[in-house]
Design a protein that fits this description.
The protein is an all-alpha fold and 287 residues long. The protein contains ten helices and no strands.
Length: 287
């Protein structure tokens, strides 16, 4: 019975030792597990910290990249808008210039139209002197071909009318022997219209007035042209006789003799033949 009790006691002791050993092992395992858990927790913390840093860096990099891309897109858009604005500005400038040019042309046409109307009134009123004074104004106007022809014809008619008017005034002065007034009127007549039908006779009467005023040397070239090639044949013989008289006045006797001989040769049926023969005979007798 004691042996059984001793065995039981020994068994209990062994169980206690095994239990303590098991407790120690369990404790060791728990400590090891705790160490592993702490190690895992630290690694997890480091991983999470690293993940947070990596996420932050990735966020920053992504943000920077997005900002750069956004800037590039915005710059491209701004450049496009700027180019469009520049093109539109140039187009606006061109349109403004064209508008100003068109406005200036319209203003010029309106001004020319008003000026042309004023000049038309001069034509309708027969104000020849004012029309001729406006020659430069007419040439500066932008007129149609028809309007230019109308004004040219009106100016030509005005020159003819004024020339004829001054010619008639000159003849009146010649008849009354007012030589200075005659010279002025006849000079104006020739100046207004040098190729009018009355111009040869106007030159002849002008030479007569010049001779009366003692200006034979100015009259001689005019009389030579009339004598040699006048478009009006009826004044050629009279011009030749006056030429000879002017040459006598300045004592160019040989020239006067030659003129009179040419007169007798060219105009044998002239009513001034007897005068020419008498003058030639007198010159030959005395000079």
């Amino acid at each position: 019975m004691l042996d059984d009790f001793g065995n039981e006691l020994e068994e209990i002791r062994r169980e206690i030792v095994e239990s303590r050993s098991l407790s120690i092992k369990t404790n060791n395992l728990v400590n090891a597990l705790s160490a592993d858990v702490n190690s895992i927790a630290k690694r997890q913390q480091n991983y999470e910290r690293s993940l947070r840093w990596n996420s932050g860096i990735a966020y920053v990099v992504t943000t920077v990249i997005l900002m750069l891309v956004g800037k590039i897109v915005v710059d491209a858009r701004v450049e496009t808008v700027r180019a469009q604005t520049s093109d539109q500005s140039e187009e606006l400038t061109q349109l403004t210039k064209e508008n100003e040019s068109l406005r200036a042309r319209v203003d010029t046409e309106h001004r020319d139209e008003n000026k042309a109307f004023e000049l038309y009134r001069l034509v309708s009123q027969g104000d020849h002197a004012a029309l001729l004074k406006a020659r430069e104004e007419i040439e500066a106007l932008q007129l149609t071909k028809t309007e230019k022809l109308v004004f040219d014809a009106a100016r030509e008619r005005a020159r003819t009318e004024l020339s004829l008017q001054r010619y008639q005034e000159g003849l009146d002065h010649v008849r009354t022997r007012r030589w200075h007034e005659a010279e002025q009127a006849l000079s104006a007549s020739v100046k207004y219209k040098a190729d009018a039908a009355h111009s040869p006779n106007a030159r002849l009467q002008l030479a007569r007035a010049m001779r009366a005023l003692g200006r034979q040397r100015e009259a001689i070239p005019m009389l030579i042209k009339l004598f040699e090639a006048s478009p009006d044949k009826e004044v050629m013989d009279d011009a030749a006789l006056q030429l000879a008289e002017c040459q006598v006045d300045i004592e160019a006797y040989n020239d006067a003799k030659a003129t009179l001989r040419a007169f007798l040769r060219r105009f044998p049926s002239s009513p001034f033949v007897n005068d020419a023969r008498s003058k030639l005979a007198d010159l030959q007798l005395h000079h």
